Amino acid sequence: MAVSAALVKELRERTGLGMLECKKALKETDGDVDLAIENLRKASGLKAAKKAGRTAADGVVAAKVAEDGSFGVVVEVNSETDFAARDEGFLAFVSTVVEKAFAEKSASVEALVDESLEAARQALVQKIGENIGIRRVQLVEATEGVVAEYVHSNNRIAVLVELKGGETAVAKDVAMHVAASNPQVIRPEDMPADMLKKEEDVIKAQPDMEGKPAEIVEKMMGGRIKKFLKENSLVEQPFVKNPDQTVGQLVKAAGADIASVARFEVGEGIEVEEADFAAEVAAQVAASKA
User: Minimal CB count within 10 Å: which of 139, 142, 149, 182?
Assistant: First the structure.
């Protein structure tokens, strides 16, 4: 039977194993997720599956851009610890991932991962003893300008910037600024309505708003929202290399416009469970005596 993407996703989430391995397991069980899990527990994937149950929130990011600036890719590969993220074998795997993504212009993890890459990932899991995962991939292509990258020296932040018009040097400067300042949107008008609403609620709840007439509250609200948008919009932020000039002014002076931005920071958005090691050890001791 044909295995749906939803079933593959469910099995990946429940086992932490790779997409291809999960798809193969589901084909062998005609889409029975529970039976697939049981078979995987009996097979060689057991060791990797156990490790995949742990949160991989460390790791590195990497980026590569074509020499002519026509396109670039950025990837995030996770490990459980910073120690593993500095391992030569892990870094070699990351290099393989970004080179493959670049060569194939991969726009997603699903498009990138094949049997060879998955086998390399699992071999690394066995060797290092930690869960390793290719978390995300993004492709940025220039339509009427250039793409440039900036990777922070510790390989924990990587940025791709696409300019419409302009030159690579300007795009690199903007990418460096994005790495340092982490703007939420490119322009004030790009700010999502839900984020604006959340900020308005925060402002209204501030102590100095209490007891003031509605018209005063609205006036204060307007000023603070304007400040919020300026602080969080790329084109409105003071350029890190020249605070007397905004990023928007920098780009405009170069005869360009910012078309898109991709910023990856290691582990962002991943919830890491705080472990109570004392309780964990106590539980293991109790289990050994049972």
Answer: 182
Give the CA count within 13 Å in the CB-facing half-sphere of 135. Answer: 24
Sign of the C-alpha dihedral, residues 149, 110, 44, 49?
A: positive
pLDDT bin (cut points 50, 70, 90) of residue 270 is confident
For residue 54, with 0-12 CB atoms within 10 Å meaning exposed, 13-18 middle and 19 or more buried, which class applies?
A: middle
Q: How many CB atoms lie within 10 A of CB 171?
A: 30
Residue 90's pLDDT band, with cuts at 50, 70 and 90, is very high
Both 134 and 199 in a single domain?
A: no
| 47 shares its domain with 63 | no
276 in a domain, yes or no? no
Alpha carbon distance 161, 180 (integer Å): 14
Tokens of 121: 């990932």
What percentage of the chain carries pLDDT values higher than 70? 88
Cβ distance 250 to 176 under 8 Å?
A: no
Burial class (CB in 10 A: 0-12, 13-18, 19+), 210: exposed
Which CATH number belongs to the domain containing residue 107 in this structure? 3.30.479.20
pTM exceeding 0.85: no
Query: Is 20 in the same domain as 105?
Result: no
5-15 and 19-28 helices, crossing angle to 10°: 110
CB contact at 8 A, 177 and 247: yes
pLDDT at 277: 45
Domain with 226 in it: 193-230
Backbone angles phi, psi at 185, to 5 degrees: -140, 170
pLDDT of 214 reads 83
